[in-house]
Amino acid sequence: MRTTVNLAEDVLLAARHLAQREHMSLGDAISLLVRRGASAGGGDEGARKSAPLRGRFALLPARDEVVTTRHVRELMEREGI
Fold first, then answer.
1. What's the pTM value of the predicted model, to 2 decimals?
2. Measured CA distances, 30 to 25, 55, 63, 68 (Å)
3. Would you list the DSSP string of the chain?
4. How far is 50 from 48, CA to CA, in rounded Å?
């Protein structure tokens, strides 16, 4: 079904990344993400606001550690990126 929606920039970037990684259309990626979110339940947790953006990157809360290249590589390996 064809429709028009307004998406937050971080959501669009996540959907595009998934679509590219899984070799699917953007519409299929968005549908998959919505289905995952709907089946996860979570009540009010899903309604919370996303992290504020600076440019194309979400600002995350401060941490008590320095994120190194090693941390990033380990996360990429776990996520299959």
1. 0.50
2. 9, 22, 31, 31
3. --------HHHHHHHHHHHHHHT--HHHHHHHHHHHHHHH--GGGGGSPPPPEETTEEPPPP-SS---HHHHHHHHHHHT-
4. 7
- Cα 36 from Cα 6, distance rounded (Å): 19
Q: Give the pLDDT confidence of 51-61 residue by residue, as tens digits.
A: 666 677 777 77
What is the arithmetic mean of pLDDT over 43-68? 68
Residue 2 CA to its chain's centroid (Å): 23
Measured over the CA atoms of residue 15, residue 16, residue 17 and residue 20, the dihedral's sign is: positive
